Amino acid sequence: MVEHRVSIRHLRAFSSVSQFQSFSQAAKESADSRVFAGIHFRSACDDGLAAGRKIGQRAVTLYLQPAKK
């Protein structure tokens, strides 16, 4: 799996910027915040993270291939 650094600017949170070492780390923090806020149950977030990984892998397999020369 290829990971990339990610920065997210929080426009409503005092103009702060969160920095992550990977998209996976950003997704995990987002899921955690929804559990802590009482918006979702942990199992729903875990299922969503797993589905997101599968969708991402499928998108790479189908659409993000090297250009043919």
What does this structure look like?
The protein is an alpha+beta fold and 69 residues long. The chain has one domain. 52% of the residues lie in helices and 14% in strands. The chain contains two helices and two strands; from the N terminus they run E-E-H-H. A two-stranded antiparallel sheet has the order 1-2. The chain is flat. The model has no long low-confidence stretch (mean pLDDT 85).
Sum up the overall morphology in one term.
flat
Mean pLDDT: 85
What is the CA-atom radius of gyration, in angstroms?
15 Å
Strand content: 5-15%
Largest sheet: number of strands, sense, barrel closure: 2 strands, antiparallel
Number of helices: 2
- Regions with pLDDT < 50 over 5+ consecutive residues? none
| End-to-end C-alpha gap | 25 Å
Q: In which order are the strands of the major sheet placed?
A: 1-2
The total count of strands amounts to 2
Quaternary structure of the protein: single chain
